[in-house]
Amino acid sequence: MYLDECILQTRDLKLEESGHVMGEEESKMETNAHSIIGKSPFTQAFQVRRDQAECDILSDDAVQVKNHYLCPGVIDALFKNYMGIFPLWSGLLLGDLSRHRKGTSKKDGSHKTRDTNCHVELWFGLVKHSILLKKKYLRPAEFVSKMYASIQGRYVEHIEQHNLPMHILDKNFGHPSRPDDDHEEQWNKRESSAGHSKSKSKYFNPPKALPNPKSPPATKVKKRKVDQQEQDAQGNLTWLWKKKDTEVVVAVLPSQMKGRILLIRHCELCSLRPHQWLTGEVIEGVFHVAADKFAVLNKMYLLNHYTASVILFGDRTQLISHSLPKVNFDNYEAVLSFVLVNNNHWKLLYIHANTSTVFLVDPAQSIKELDDSEHAAKRIQEYFRMRRTRHSITDWVDVKWKGGVMGHPLQTDGCSCGVVVVKMAKAVMESFPLIPNVNFECSKKYMKRERRELALEILEASVFDEHTYCAMCAALRPPGSGSPITDWVQCDDCERWYHAQCLAMDSRDFKKAETGYWNCPLCK
Q: Where is the Ubiquitin-like protease family profile domain (predicted)?
């Protein structure tokens, strides 16, 4: 239809109107100078050829042979819409093809070129072989999820390479309004087949409920039970506690110090199982969660338990490396920590600045609790004097510390000292700045229930995104300097992501995990 209109317009065009039409065409060409056709180098080349042909036709030497098939309108349409961009899709961009003649050296098949359409074909190859793993007839939901995960990973890798902020992944870009000529596609409703029972139709409607096929008894196979995390926190905790201890990160807790985090690994979370000794990382993590809950982060300094043990029981050479020169204790009203005694027992350390009292609270029954607190006060005094000598810091150096005793319940078994320490620390934070008289139940049944509550607190307070960061190092990039391209592998059961470097995978194991069914250390 468009060509017919061009032919009709050419036949009816008058000579006196041709100049006006050409003027309009020139103005249109000027407006299209910034389009793809206007920027194409072939547009100018074809214009030169066209002008030369017109000059040849109008010259005296040209043979005046009438062409019955001449249609200038078609030439204008081709030049306006096609000629400038058609070579971009042709083999013209392949260059001099004489390089492929016989006798030339054959190039390596893996050599990358910029031949036409090569990037599109390369992407199709990646989709077929690397993303979909040569699988065919995938359901739409499965195809979309695989493509989304791959593209999201490429976005993350691009952001890391160019040092871009991660929040741009969550940025919602506004969609332009739909133009008037772009109508939304709508499906016509199928007409009811009622009243047309006389003629048989070759179409049929599938049943709403499809019965599941029954497996014959002879080929009945015991199905492999796949552990799946339940949506609720109780089921997730039960699932984690049933697994063997691993080094997989299960929670990341925010710390009192800005820019620092506390990693809780699976083996550490499993120490909260009944009849287990709690690890220091779990106790310290619960301290930070409780301090945020009771709003004492700006009033009470949470001292690392390793540093606290060095202050009370270490020698001077160790004390220097734990002097904390960047901490100003004058900004706080108290210090809370805990220490490990004889490698098998936890005690609570509480330094109350307003009363100049140091409490070293023993969850078990002890007649030397006051003596231990006095010894701890003496060591605290020496610690602050060392800070003044070493760094010229005078905070709390003139305070005369003394030991004190705090009332508290006693543990009833040999493995719940860590749980009792956490309960006493929570009571101290809740009543701060007053010194509490701690009182709670310590039966074995209560301790078992309290262990589960503490584990749930850790999981609920976690800020770890297991679908974005590595589950071994909790970071986007593996530790140390390595290749700029990071190899990732995902568990097919729990869907956690891991760095191949963090798992010490060689190329053979990585390829096997990438193409086959792979379970992470937590799901094995």
A: 262-428
Give the mean pLDDT of 411-428: 90
Amino acid at 330: D
| CA 33 – CA 35 distance, rounded (Å) | 6
State mean pLDDT over 63-88.
77
Q: Which two tokens stand for residue 226?
A: 């796949």
**The dihedral of CA 169, 172, 176, 178: what is its sign?**
positive
Classify residue 275 as left (phi > 0), alpha (psi -120 to 50) or beta.
left
Mapped onto helix, strand or coil, the DSSP state of residue 176 is coil
Report yes or no: 333 and 433 within 8 Å, Cβ to Cβ. yes
Length of the chain: 524
> Where does residue 55 rank: exposed (0-12), middle (13-18), buried (19+ CB within 10 A)?
exposed
Contacts 24+ apart (CB under 8 A), 408-414: 408/361, 408/363, 408/438, 408/439, 409/438, 409/439, 409/440, 409/441, 409/442, 410/363, 410/364, 410/365, 410/442, 411/363, 411/364, 411/442, 411/447, 412/442, 412/443, 412/444, 412/447, 413/275, 413/444, 413/447
| Phi then psi dihedrals of residue 125, to 5 deg | -65, -40
Residue 456: how many other CB atoms lie within 10 Å: 15
Architecture of the domain delimited by 233-461: 3-Layer(aba) Sandwich (3.40)
Mean pLDDT value across residues 58-84: 75
pLDDT digits (tens, 9 = 90+) for 77-127: 888 888 887 776 666 666 666 665 655 455 555 555 545 566 778 888 888
Question: Please, are residues 100 and 60 in contact by the beta-carbon 8 Å criterion?
Answer: no
pLDDT recorded at residue 220 = 43
Q: List the domain boundaries for the chain.
A: 2-91, 233-461, 467-524
Nearest to 496 by CA among 251, 169, 164: 251
